[in-house]
Amino acid sequence: MAADDTIPAFSVVSGAAVERALHGRRRELIDLVEHAYRLHGQGDTVNPPSYFLRFPDRPSARIIALPASVGGDVAVDGIKWISSFPTNLALGIPRASALLILNDARTGVPFACLEGSIISAVRTAASAAVAARALVAGRDTPRRVGYIGAGLIARYIHAYLSELDWKVEQYAVHDLDAGYATSFAERVLGGGADVRVHDSAAALIRDSDVVVLATTAATPHLHDPALFAHHPLVLHVSLRDLGEDVVLGAANIVDDVEHVLKANTSVHLTEQRTGHRDFIDGTLYDVLTGAVTVPADRPVIFSPFGLGVLDLVVGATVHRHATDHGDVTTVDGFFHELSRHGAAR
Ligand SMILES: NC(=O)c1ccc[n+]([C@@H]2O[C@H](COP(=O)([O-])OP(=O)(O)OC[C@H]3O[C@@H](n4cnc5c(N)ncnc54)[C@H](O)[C@@H]3O)[C@@H](O)[C@H]2O)c1
């Protein structure tokens, strides 16, 4: 086979094309992300630790590399390279920006570069929805949903939780910045249901059956287990909000035990304090497969570190869809050295 038949075409997929490829497919994407968790649980993935690039002169910033490989019917390798610069909010632009590179599983050749921040937000939101769907089984259907941290991730999570056929009667929001909370209440939660803006996280928690934590808190700020005495489901997407006593008072479900017990997440801090990890009840895969059942008479906390395999699974479907619809920019001749010994003289 000629080299140029073997090398896949290289294409770039813009954010607008990513958005078009994902439009109207939330339920399908929730199922797809559940499929990714199942492949991960079955050992059909490789998901090494993320690498955190940090900067002494910009301590709040980081860029994370998430290399991963997905087998099974997905069969793609790749890497997400995602920046988090919280100071961007003051510039009026999003905190996070990202690229996703897909590599061909047969040759290793990178065949696509996709705008990654929308894919990252979608996989995060879909993963929260997969967990919420599985973890409310055996409980009353949630009627009151509250968001602490009113940013882009909370907006995406709200869109995906709205696919779960819950009969939500009341939404609530709290943010350290009251302006963000009000804007979120009006622009994201507005319409139909009762919408409340709380000036304290504690009041919101007491008033919610499902609590979504999507802040940028670097260290725990919710320490009192009594706030959770009504046994809510807590989607702890931002990972560092809950004090150790809150973690110890709950059933804890994670996406991947080795991953989430790193980088000073609340569960990592709890492991450091107690010297063990017995407070982790299991993974989402364990819940999906029935190996672990979560109690209805305790708070349940889902702490997802965020697996690169989820980005790959969503990225691969975006790339396929965009390619099928002629919505990619192909870069002809991107890989130039295609013969080991050069052209014949
Ligand atoms: N686990 C995962 O897979 C995953 C994936 C993507 C993002 N995240 C995390 O989700 C979080 C939210 O991301 P985003 O893009 O929406 O950020 P964002 O900056 O757009 O919004 C975060 C909001 O949280 C608010 N906030 C900060 N500290 C708070 C506190 N103590 N109490 C209440 N509000 C507070 C900020 O004012 C801001 O409005 C980040 O921590 C990010 O790292 C997790």
UniProtKB/TrEMBL annotation:
InterPro entries: NAD(P)-bd_dom_sf, ODC_Mu_crystall, ODC_N, SbnB. It holds the Pfam family OCD_Mu_crystall. GO terms for biological process: siderophore biosynthetic process. The gene is sbnB. This is 2,3-diaminopropionate biosynthesis protein SbnB. One of its GO terms (molecular function) is oxidoreductase activity, acting on the CH-NH2 group of donors, NAD or NADP as acceptor. GO terms for cellular component: cytoplasm.
